[in-house]
């Protein structure tokens, strides 16, 4: 038998390859960009750059005008709307797929997961085509139904709506799979017991299903809220910011900082966005935890 | 159990090893050997174009003994950026002229003033040489250029309009029954440049200061607003070319890259210069991208590298590029060649190039695309007052440029 100490070390040994990968691909870049944000690395100081302290942060924060806060607010609204729609649709679909008597479950599940498998920029471009004012299928269908055409990609409000539709379509499969997995893990004896007690479907959903799938759902929601908050390709490719009127944090940062090849300033910007996200996550976790105790 | 563990271990080791193997294979420029020099060139041409260039260089190597090695690089501009910092660069790079300002400041490429025979540059179109001149110094040898011109469907419009007034009138007349008179991607700074530079306004001055609020730009905006009223909504590049290829658009402004698709659809097309601006009688002047060869800071044998550059503008290379890649050569002599003289497409694009504006090579241009595109969006698509919009984005552009430092 191996000694206790050796046994304790084995897990670390096994995780070493993954740790090396994580270090090279995740941890090192994060710390490097934090380091860069304190230097003056840009086009004009490319080969020789040095530490300049908090100058970049001061520049970013002082140059942030009302526009930036509007963008942050818009991003939060965008994230919330997306999450609400995503979770409700995903839950609905998962509940339907979870019906025992349902036939062709496999095919339906595969079809519903499909959007997830398509690279998001391709989906974005396809949706852009479909939302086109005069030649897109959506407006053609609308006018066939006798409704007026909607300026999807020209008006900021509709541009946002179009982006949300495309993003929901992209993100629902992931949420649906999480919901479905959680639903399938619920022991059906609970429902049988509830039936004996005379519970309605409504009761069963809110008092059995919801509490039991919450542990699985919360991490998925937090994860998705990150992805949605940081969403870039959908908005950028579909509306291209519509002159700044549909910009979210990432597209704003891209246009503001990244097109200038000023790496130190962009890094400072990214670090600030990182802290905004961190704050929102802590808030999110607090809220969901508080919810749990009720 | 044990087998499983060893297997898992092995697999993870293989995965980790795979990670490093990707890093090890970087294409380091091969250093010149002791006796015969080898010059390495990074480029992003297609393989068949590379082959043609290499064949053209065979005679060069025979004459001079200088070997030239062409290495295709994906994402060449990123590699150049990283390479300038770590000094891992080839001797030469082939790329567009708007790299000049940026990479010379970053220390990636160096001036070739005094290394290039003046006879060579005299044989090239002046506007293309200008494209590689930055702060009065020559930074590269132009080989080819591309620009946009007026492409029209002869079945829908017999003769191309000569002035913008005619263009607007024709566009109005022909936009009906699901067909369009004139199309251009409305928010693209490159495609719309012809009118701004024709109006003698423009995006940037020679020192890299934004000039969006210059009064002349309002004249260009007037023309674009008139034309913009006739565009379908949500117009973009794909839609412009699709409508033209479907025979639903009489005229568009586009580049040589579209001709293949147009021929395939058997559209009876013609090329003409973009109509001259009616208000000042001057030629429309679209942006012209120039492709050429530049010397990096890592070039050891500068004389040999300069010779390789000079040959890149040579007729042999120019012909190879024109034939295999459909490029428009910068070498003036090429246009005396009967084969090229009889190709109306090449002649039309070279005519347009004579009045074109070489793409600004100042690094500030990189920060301009976004403000210009937003300004065009508000003026042409959302139909807001141009003077206010230009003032707004003049400030945005100034801010963006300030952020570069």
UniProtKB/TrEMBL annotation, chain A:
<dbReference type="InterPro" id="IPR051393">
    <property type="entry name" value="ABC_transporter_permease"/>
</dbReference>
<feature type="transmembrane region" description="Helical">
    <location>
        <begin position="111"/>
        <end position="127"/>
    </location>
</feature>
<dbReference type="GO" id="GO:0055085">
    <property type="term" value="P:transmembrane transport"/>
</dbReference>
<dbReference type="InterPro" id="IPR035906">
    <property type="entry name" value="MetI-like_sf"/>
</dbReference>
<feature type="transmembrane region" description="Helical">
    <location>
        <begin position="76"/>
        <end position="99"/>
    </location>
</feature>
<comment type="similarity">
    <text>Belongs to the binding-protein-dependent transport system permease family.</text>
</comment>
<keyword id="KW-0812">Transmembrane</keyword>
<keyword id="KW-0813">Transport</keyword>
<feature type="transmembrane region" description="Helical">
    <location>
        <begin position="263"/>
        <end position="283"/>
    </location>
</feature>
<dbReference type="InterPro" id="IPR000515">
    <property type="entry name" value="MetI-like"/>
</dbReference>
<feature type="domain" description="ABC transmembrane type-1">
    <location>
        <begin position="72"/>
        <end position="284"/>
    </location>
</feature>
<dbReference type="InterPro" id="IPR035277">
    <property type="entry name" value="MalF_N"/>
</dbReference>
<dbReference type="GO" id="GO:0005886">
    <property type="term" value="C:plasma membrane"/>
</dbReference>
<keyword id="KW-1003">Cell membrane</keyword>
<keyword id="KW-1133">Transmembrane helix</keyword>
<protein>
    <submittedName>
        <fullName>Carbohydrate ABC transporter membrane protein 1 (CUT1 family)</fullName>
    </submittedName>
</protein>
<feature type="transmembrane region" description="Helical">
    <location>
        <begin position="205"/>
        <end position="229"/>
    </location>
</feature>
<feature type="transmembrane region" description="Helical">
    <location>
        <begin position="12"/>
        <end position="38"/>
    </location>
</feature>
<dbReference type="Pfam" id="PF00528">
    <property type="entry name" value="BPD_transp_1"/>
</dbReference>
<keyword id="KW-0472">Membrane</keyword>
<feature type="transmembrane region" description="Helical">
    <location>
        <begin position="157"/>
        <end position="184"/>
    </location>
</feature>
TrEMBL record, chain B:
<dbReference type="GO" id="GO:0055052">
    <property type="term" value="C:ATP-binding cassette (ABC) transporter complex, substrate-binding subunit-containing"/>
</dbReference>
<feature type="signal peptide">
    <location>
        <begin position="1"/>
        <end position="21"/>
    </location>
</feature>
<keyword id="KW-0813">Transport</keyword>
<keyword id="KW-0762">Sugar transport</keyword>
<keyword id="KW-0732">Signal</keyword>
<dbReference type="GO" id="GO:1901982">
    <property type="term" value="F:maltose binding"/>
</dbReference>
<dbReference type="InterPro" id="IPR006059">
    <property type="entry name" value="SBP"/>
</dbReference>
<dbReference type="Pfam" id="PF13416">
    <property type="entry name" value="SBP_bac_8"/>
</dbReference>
<protein>
    <recommendedName>
        <fullName>Maltodextrin-binding protein</fullName>
    </recommendedName>
</protein>
<dbReference type="InterPro" id="IPR006060">
    <property type="entry name" value="Maltose/Cyclodextrin-bd"/>
</dbReference>
<keyword id="KW-1003">Cell membrane</keyword>
<keyword id="KW-0449">Lipoprotein</keyword>
<comment type="similarity">
    <text>Belongs to the bacterial solute-binding protein 1 family.</text>
</comment>
<dbReference type="GO" id="GO:0015768">
    <property type="term" value="P:maltose transport"/>
</dbReference>
<dbReference type="GO" id="GO:0015144">
    <property type="term" value="F:carbohydrate transmembrane transporter activity"/>
</dbReference>
<keyword id="KW-0472">Membrane</keyword>
<dbReference type="GO" id="GO:0042956">
    <property type="term" value="P:maltodextrin transmembrane transport"/>
</dbReference>
């Amino acid at each position: 038998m191996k000694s206790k100490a050796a046994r304790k070390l084995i897990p670390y040994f096994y995780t070493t390859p993954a740790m090396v990968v994580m270090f090279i691909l995740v941890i090192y870049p994060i710390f490097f960009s934090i380091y860069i944000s304190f230097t003056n690395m840009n086009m004009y100081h490319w080969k020789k750059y040095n530490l300049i302290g908090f100058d970049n942060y001061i520049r970013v924060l002082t140059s942030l005008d009302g526009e930036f806060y509007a963008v942050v607010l818009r991003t939060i609204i965008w994230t919330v709307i997306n999450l609400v729609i995503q979770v409700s649709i995903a839950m609905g679909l998962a509940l339907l797929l979870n019906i025992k008597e349902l036939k062709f479950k496999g095919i339906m599940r595969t079809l519903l997961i499909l959007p997830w498998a398509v690279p998001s920029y391709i989906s974005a471009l396809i949706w852009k085509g479909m939302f086109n004012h005069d030649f897109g299928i959506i407006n053609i269908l609308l006018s066939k139904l006798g409704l007026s055409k909607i300026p999807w990609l020209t008006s900021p409000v509709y541009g946002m709506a179009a982006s949300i539709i495309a993003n929901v379509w992209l993100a629902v499969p992931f949420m649906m799979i999480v919901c479905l997995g959680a639903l399938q893990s619920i022991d059906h004896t609970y429902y049988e017991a509830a039936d004996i007690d005379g519970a309605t479907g409504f009761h069963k959903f809110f008092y059995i299903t919801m509490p039991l799938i919450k542990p699985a759902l919360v991490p998925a929601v937090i994860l998705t809220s990150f992805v949605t908050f940081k969403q870039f390709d959908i908005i950028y490719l579909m509306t291209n910011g519509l002159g700044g009127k549909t910009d979210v944090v990432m597209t704003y940062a891209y246009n503001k900082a990244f097109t200038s090849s000023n790496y130190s300033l962009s890094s400072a910007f990214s670090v600030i966005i990182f802290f905004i996200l961190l704050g929102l996550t802590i808030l999110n976790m607090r809220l969901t935890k508080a919810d749990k105790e009720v | 159990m044990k087998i499983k563990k060893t297997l898992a271990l092995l697999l993870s080791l293989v995965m980790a090893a795979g990670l490093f193997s990707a890093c090890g294979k970087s294409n380091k420029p091969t250093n010149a050997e002791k006796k015969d020099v080898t010059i390495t060139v990074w480029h992003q041409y297609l393989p068949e174009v590379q082959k043609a260039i290499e064949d053209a260089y065979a005679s060069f190597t025979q004459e001079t003994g200088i070997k030239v090695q062409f290495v295709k690089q994906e994402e060449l501009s990123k590699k150049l950026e990283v390479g300038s910092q770590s000094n891992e660069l080839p001797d030469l790079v082939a790329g567009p002229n708007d790299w000049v300002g940026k990479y010379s400041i970053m220390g990636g490429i160096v001036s070739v003033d005094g290394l290039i025979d003046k006879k060579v540059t005299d044989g090239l179109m002046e506007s293309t040489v200008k494209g590689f001149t930055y702060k009065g110094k020559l930074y590269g040898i132009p080989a080819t250029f591309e620009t946009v011109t007026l492409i029209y469907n002869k079945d829908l419009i017999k003769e191309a309009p000569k002035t913008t007034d005619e263009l607007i009138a024709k566009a109005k007349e022909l936009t009906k029954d699901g067909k369009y008179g004139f199309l251009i991607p409305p928010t693209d700074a490159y495609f719309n440049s012809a009118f701004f530079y024709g109006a003698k306004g423009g995006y940037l001055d020679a020192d890299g200061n934004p000039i969006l609020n210059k009064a002349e730009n309002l004249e260009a905006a007037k023309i674009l607003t008139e034309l913009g009223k006739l565009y379908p909504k949500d117009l973009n590049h794909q839609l412009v070319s699709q409508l033209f290829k479907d025979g639903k658009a009489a005229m568009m402004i586009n580049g040589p890259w579209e001709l293949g698709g147009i021929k395939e659809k058997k559209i009876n097309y013609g090329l003409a210069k973009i109509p001259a601006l009616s208000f000042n009688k001057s030629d429309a002047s679209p942006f012209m991208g120039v492709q050429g060869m530049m010397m990096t800071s890592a070039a050891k044998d500068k004389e040999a590298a300069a010779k390789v550059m000079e040959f890149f503008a040579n007729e042999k290379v120019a012909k190879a590029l024109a034939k295999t890649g459909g490029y428009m050569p910068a070498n003036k002599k090429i246009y005396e060649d009967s084969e090229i003289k009889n190709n109306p497409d090449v002649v039309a694009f070279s005519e347009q190039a004579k009045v074109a504006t070489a793409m600004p090579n100042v690094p500030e241009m990189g920060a301009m695309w976004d403000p210009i595109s937003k300004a065009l969006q508000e003026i042409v698509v959302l139909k807001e007052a141009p003077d206010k919009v230009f003032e707004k984005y003049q400030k945005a552009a100034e801010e963006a440029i300030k952020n570069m430092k």
